[in-house]
């Protein structure tokens, strides 16, 4: 039991009980609706449906909903259930390693034999194994070994992730009139607002989302007669003041730039305790103040204004703080939003700085996230010599690096490198709104990336072979992937849930395409066929035959009436997507890699191609074929 004691970080059962007691208990009527929800039932009953993501704004009742789900799932004796409630005020209870330790702990409590997997790692280094800089790796191994144990036939894992409430210390720092209050007086004041607010472990919460909505929609004029826009600007200004007072280099006295974030221990008192909210949301409050075009916040966005002065003095310290708080992605979002606010100010020194600051965090965010003090070492050292950030913080560069690397004068075209796949990447595609990227890998996974932050938001697993191609539906709600395992999978692009697996090809699937209305899906295969599927039911409605080699690419025309396919037999075919009749066979001088339609009409430009059929179309589309040699074939239809 000694190793279980050292594994312990919290008992999630106690956390759940505390939450229920604080919020006045659980009403079945508040959560029973989800038990009849199609997605929940599919998650509970379908072995292929392995992920259910419940999301909503802070205060919407997600935590209580999860408590209800836990109660219901605990009634099913066949299931092993482990859960974890993240807590913003405790660093150990909001970290990835903390979550794993909690999940492992609860599984062992239910099935003590699983402790053998912990002992294999624990016996070598005892308690340090779970506290060290490298704790994530052994914890992951333990967790995966436990999940693969034959005794665990059906395991459900539930994680309640973080909202961002305000702590008592943050409230005092943000509201100038509260600076003279001691904490006991402030607690008493908050207690008198019990119909709206509650205080737990120094953190202030709305008792319910409806209380927040009432105060904002019905009572805001009485509470903030100057208007919410003015209040946003006040909070923004106070946030800059709080950060200017709090942020400095090496706030946790780490000293060594190589110390990993996993090895950082929060000091007591925490120098960032009062600045946490400000670090996260100062740009959001500025944006809300600017949205109504009031004059006061716009003055803050001038050269040498408050924003310019703050960033010029504190930008690197702010990045260090975000790393210590585990929120580097918030910095990327903030700089992107700030750059958007400065649209129309091109050529100003502030605009140039903000644009450079965004490039800086995109380029070095991963290093700073992993080791906070790298903001002053590798980040500065490997930034372009003309980088505004590097020039402004030149004094922070390490003096012990005598031979500095040769770096380009300016930032290059590469905004960011996305890392995470274990095998080669075969295909990438943007979502229609440009906010997400999907990548398909030889390792058999598809990863979803947030373009704004470069953060991997989901890894889609389920294919039994490499994934050759991936495509979004036009509405961005679904994703289709084509794999070496001869299947096509359709995914919910928001939750990562596998909605359907399409089987029917006799060899690997090379390409996949949605029709513009999202009702049909076409797949091209090494078995020399193209298949058309009903994207809702997963039924194969037609098989198109005629190619004499692997079909590399397939695409629908913009009007959905035509389908084009390209093959290694140096043939492109145009099909009627309804009757599946072959309308034209186009002989290409080299192997075609990709094929697409374009609404613009061009002449035939490939000297080694000829059409052996005709494919008239009312909208004047053209088909464009890109070949291995880099040549391009434009064919009028």
From TrEMBL:
Keywords: Repeat, WD repeat
PROSITE patterns: NACHT, WD_REPEATS_1, WD_REPEATS_2, WD_REPEATS_REGION
Chain positions of WD repeats: 418-459, 460-501, 502-543, 544-585
UniProt KW rRNA-binding keyword: no
Pfam family for this entry, one: NPHP3_N
Domain called NACHT: residue spans: 50-164
PANTHER family membership: F-BOX AND WD REPEAT DOMAIN CONTAINING 7, WD40 REPEAT PROTEIN
The protein's name in its UniProt record: NACHT domain-containing protein
Organism: Fusarium oxysporum (strain Fo5176) (Fusarium vascular wilt)
């Amino acid at each position: 039991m000694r190793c279980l004691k050292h594994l312990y970080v919290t008992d999630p059962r106690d956390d759940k009980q505390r939450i229920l007691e604080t919020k006045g208990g659980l009403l079945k009527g508040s959560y029973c609706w989800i038990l009849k929800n199609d997605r929940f039932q599919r998650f509970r009953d379908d072995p292929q449906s392995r992920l259910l993501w419940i999301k909503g704004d802070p205060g919407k009742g997600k935590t209580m909903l999860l408590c209800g789900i836990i109660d219901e799932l605990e009634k099913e004796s066949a299931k092993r259930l482990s859960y974890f409630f993240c807590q913003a005020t405790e660093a150990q209870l909001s970290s990835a390693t903390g979550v794993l330790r909690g999940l492992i702990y609860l599984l062992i409590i239910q099935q003590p034999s699983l402790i053998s997997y912990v002992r294999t790692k624990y016996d070598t280094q005892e308690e340090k194994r779970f506290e060290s800089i490298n704790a994530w790796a052994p914890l992951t191994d333990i967790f995966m070994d436990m999940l693969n144990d034959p005794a665990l036939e059906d395991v459900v894992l539930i994680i309640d992730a973080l909202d961002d409430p305000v702590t008592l210390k943050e409230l005092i720092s943000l509201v100038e009139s509260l600076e003279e209050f001691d904490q006991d007086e402030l607690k008493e004041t908050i207690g008198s607002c019990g119909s709206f607010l509650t205080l737990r472990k120094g953190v202030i919460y709305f008792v319910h989302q409806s209380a927040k909505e009432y105060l904002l929609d019905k009572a805001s004029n009485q509470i903030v007669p100057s208007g919410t826009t003015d209040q946003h600007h006040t909070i923004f200004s106070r946030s800059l003041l709080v950060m200017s007072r709090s942020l400095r280099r090496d706030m946790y006295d780490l000293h060594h730039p190589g110390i990993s974030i996993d090895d950082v221990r929060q000091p007591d008192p925490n120098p960032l305790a009062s600045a946490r909210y400000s670090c996260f949301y100062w740009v959001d409050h500025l944006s809300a103040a600017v949205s109504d075009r009031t004059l006061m916040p716009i003055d803050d966005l001038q050269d040498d204004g408050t924003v310019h002065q703050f960033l010029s003095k504190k930008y690197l310290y702010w990045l260090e703080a975000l790393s210590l708080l585990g929120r580097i992605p918030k910095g990327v979002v903030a700089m992107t939003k700030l750059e958007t606010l400065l649209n129309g100010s091109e050529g100003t020194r502030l605009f140039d700085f903000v644009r450079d600051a965004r490039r800086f965090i995109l380029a070095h965010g991963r290093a700073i996230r992993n080791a906070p003090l790298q903001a002053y070492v590798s980040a500065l050292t490997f930034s372009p010599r003309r980088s505004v950030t590097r020039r402004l913080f030149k004094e922070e560069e390490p003096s012990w690096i005598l031979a500095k690397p040769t770096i380009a004068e300016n930032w290059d075209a590469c905004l960011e490198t996305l890392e995470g796949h274990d095998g080669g990447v075969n295909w990438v595609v943007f979502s229609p709104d440009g906010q997400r990227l999907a990548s398909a890998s030889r390792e058999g996974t598809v990863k979803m990336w947030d373009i704004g932050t470069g953060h991997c938001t989901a890894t889609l697993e389920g294919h039994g072979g490499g994934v050759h191609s991936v495509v979004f539906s036009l509405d961005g709600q679904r994703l289709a992937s084509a794999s070496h395992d001869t299947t096509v999978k359709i995914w919910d692009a928001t939750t990562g849930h596998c909605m359907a697996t399409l089987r029917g090809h006799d060899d690997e699937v090379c390409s996949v395409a949605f029709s513009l209305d999202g009702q049909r899906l076409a797949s091209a295969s090494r078995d020399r066929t193209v298949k058309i599927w009903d994207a809702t039911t997963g039924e194969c409605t037609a098989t198109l035959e005629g190619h004499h080699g692997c079909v590399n690419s397939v695409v629908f025309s913009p009007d959905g009436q035509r389908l084009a396919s390209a093959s290694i037999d140096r043939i492109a075919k145009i099909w009627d997507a309804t009757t599946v009749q072959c309308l034209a066979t186009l002989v290409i001088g080299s192997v075609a890699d990709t094929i697409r339609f374009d609404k613009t009409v061009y002449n035939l430009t490939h000297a080694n191609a000829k059409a052996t059929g005709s494919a008239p179309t009312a909208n004047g589309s053209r088909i464009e074929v890109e070949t291995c040699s880099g040549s391009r074939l434009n064919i009028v239809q």
